[in-house]
Structures are given as structure tokens and as C-alpha cells.
Amino acid sequence: MKFNLIKINKFFGEKQVLRDINIKLDGNRVVGLLGPNGAGKTTLMRIICGFYGTSEGAILINNRKVNSKDKKYKQMIGYLPENNPLYGYKLKGLTNSEISRQIRKWSVECGIGEYLDQKIEILSKGYRQRVGLAASLMGNPKILILDEPTSGLDPKQIIEVRKLIKKLAKEKLVLLSTHILPEARAICDRLLIISRGSIVLDKETTKIRSLEKKFIDLTS
Amino acid sequence: MKNIIWIAKKEWFGYLVNPLSYIFSGLFLLISSWLFFQDFFVVKQAETRALWTVMTFLFSIFIPAISMGLIAEEKRSGSWEVLFSLPISEVEFVLGKFFGSLAYIFFIIIMASPIILTVGYLGDPEWGLIFGGGLGMWFLAASYLASGLFGSSLSRQPIGGFVFTTLFLFLNNFIGQDFFLSKISSPKIADFIGYFSLNLHSLKMSSGMMALNDIMFYISWIVIFLILTVMSLKLRDK
Question: Where is the ABC transporter domain positioned along the sequence (chain A) (predicted)?
Fold first, then answer.
């Protein structure tokens, strides 16, 4: 699947928060979005998931222009925000039998099969994150957007969630934002660095030699 | 339609499983019964107009408390970010929230029926008047709720929604009071201002002067405030 963002600009009032964002993604892989605080990562992710519209520019899927507020488009997207509130997978337009089937499937995939009967409040942060991930996978979206998916997890949980993301990327396009450079290097196939609302680097991870130095040079 | 029903059900079940909503409705009934029966045995008239007056007053505090978190809480917790990444429109979301909460308020009004049955048992009331008053109450509550939903959409903190709606309803109640309207020299202007008081329309309905005009006023009020709520949600993009 081809997923392209063409000349995306976003204004909030007079303030421009995204400038001419051009991203061309193809196939199932993990794409990392890196940037300092306030660079525009979350705004860009919110545009892709349909929470915000664009001020200018277009989103293309398989070279066809789509409206990010459109219900059909939203059915293709799974979104896990940083603070992970859980909300209605039933709104994804699934039938009851399909909901049961997918709950079974994604709970096993995300390693929460044995916790299905437990209340979310008593689960650890790592398991809550898995529940959020499973909820975002309901409807089997083609594009998965994860906003800092390992934030606040302990090292063991981080390793488990990373493995899970890698596994999911075998059949989905995963776009994740992170502050942690070693994490980006460990799980992302391609990296985008965003600074002051513009994409300043777009490269395959293996082709970036010193990520830390490059990040500081491009974002300072 | 499916999405509206799902949101409304979620809201309704939220009230059912929350012990606070039972305490809330119990408190509402306790206060309204106490205030109503305090004068009922003194006046000795089998009518419920005093009950509607008491309920109007209580609604202006209880409904902002019910509506304050409807949208503000979704914003505060961040769940609206997930919600609007799902295939649901702002209109469906607002209607679902409105009808789910309206069902709870309807439940409170229904629970007040033993008070009315007591009046019927002790005397011989005019049931047409009681029906008109009950309908007026229902429309009044729905209009308060629509205003409260809008108030809740303006803030990220539920308390902000509560303060806005309570002040707004207080002002709306104020412009319908005789002591205010009598101070306006032009009767036409007084009529015009008084027309926008939600309470005056329900008072008319409870005194047997039920007109399509009043019902249309309430429906228009509800629609306008629901549209304002949708617009306020869409403003997140600006």
C-alpha cells in the first residue's frame, strides 16, 4: 500500500505548525518520527489519524486523494495516543461476531489473552499499553499510528512492546513517534526527523551513521 | 444512527453503574419532595405547580452538574483524541451524549411520579394540567441539558462547564422574572426579552396554556445549542 502526504501545511489561527510536509511511504514497515518537543510530531500524527484536518495539502492512498475526516479512511487507521485512554472499538463498524473474533485474535497477539476478564485499573502500565494497542488494532487497520508507545514502561516491558511492534509491521504500516533515539534505531526501518514543523531528514535507518549527532545538528 | 445509539448506550450505562448517579437522583427527589410537601399541606390544593417550580430551581443546579463532564471530561482525559480518530462524526457524538443523558434525566422525572400519585390520592387534581406541567419540565430539562452540553464543550475542565452553564441558566432565569421584566418601560421589549426565558415557557405549559409555539421554542433551543456544541468541537481544528 502506498501512503503519501503531499505538501501538508497546518495553521492554528495565524501560527503555522507544519510546513510543506512531504512523506512517501510504501509497504509494511516501521517508520519512526523523531523530533524535539513542539516540533509538530503530535500534530502530524493527529492529522494522519483524522483528529485534525489539513489546512493545505493532500493525503493520498494508492495515489488516490482521501479526506482524513472520512469514515472509510478512519477505518483504515489504528491510533494509540501517548496517554492511551480506551475508547469504543465498537465504533469501528464491526459486527458482534467480528468483535468477538478480533478481541480473541488481538488479545493473543498482544499477550493479554489471560487478562481479558480483569479490570483495566488493576493492570500494570505495560499491560494497559498492550490493551490500548489491541484496541487500536480492532478493525484490522492497514496503518497503525503509535504516539510514544513505550513511554513510561520499564525496560522489560519496552523490549516486549518493541517486539510486538516489529511483529505487527509484517502486515501493517506502522508510524511511531519517539523521543528515544536508541529505540528509533532499534525498531524503525526508516526515520523521519521533524523540526519546527518541517521534515529535515528522511532516510533508511541503516543509512544513518551517527543518529545522535545528526539529530542535534538538524534540530538545534 | 448506530454510532449515536452506541454513544447514548455507553452514557446511559455509565449512569447505571455509577453509584453517584443513584445518590444524585435520590438527593434530587428528597429535596424536591421536602420542598413541595412543606407547603402542600398548608395550601391544601391538589395541584403540582409548586412541584414544577421546585424542580425548575433544582434542575438549574443539578443539570449543569450532570452535563459538566460530558465533553470536558473526554477532553481532559484525552479520550476525544481516540474517539475522533474512529469513524464517528461530531454530530453523532453530540447526539449520542445528549440522548444518553436525557434518558437519565427522564429517569429522574419518572421517579418523581410517586409525588404526583400522592397528590392524586389525596385530592382530585386536573390531570391535564399535570401532564402539561410534566411535559414542560421534560422540555425544560432537555433545553438545560443542551445548554450544559455546549458549556461542557467550551472547557477542558468539568468545573468550567459547570460554572458556565449555571451562570448562563441563572441569567436566563433572571430575564424571565417579574421583578426584572416589570422594570422595563416598553412592554414590547419586555415581552421580547421574556420570550427567551426557558422557565416562562414551562410555566405557561404547567398552567394549562400549552401551545405549539412553546414546544417549538424548546425544540429550536435544543437544536441551536446542539449545533453550537458541534461547531465548538470542530473548532479544535482552527
Answer: 3-218
**Residues on chain B touching A72 (C-beta within 8 angstroms):** 87
> What crossing angle do the helices spanning B49-67 and B69-77 adopt, rounded to 10°?
10
Taking the C-alpha atoms of residue A20 and residue A1, their distance in angstroms, rounded to an integer, is 22
* A139 torsion bin: left (phi>0), alpha (psi -120 to 50), beta (else): left
- The C-alpha atoms of residue A110 and residue A112 are separated, in whole angstroms, by 6
**Could you give the 3-state DSSP secondary structure of residue A53?**
coil
Q: pLDDT tens digits, residue range B134-191? A: 888 899 999 999 999 999 999 888 999 999 999 999 999 888 888 888 888 888 888 8
Against a cut of 0.90, is the pTM above it?
no
Interface of B with A in 86-105 (CB under 8 A): 86-89
Q: For chain A, which domains are there?
A: 28-52+70-219 (3.40.50.300)
Q: For strands A77-80 and A143-147, give the pairing.
A: parallel
Task: Determine whether the interchain pair B86/A88 forms a contact, defined as Cβ–Cβ distance below 8 Å.
Answer: yes
Structural domain boundaries in chain B: 1-235
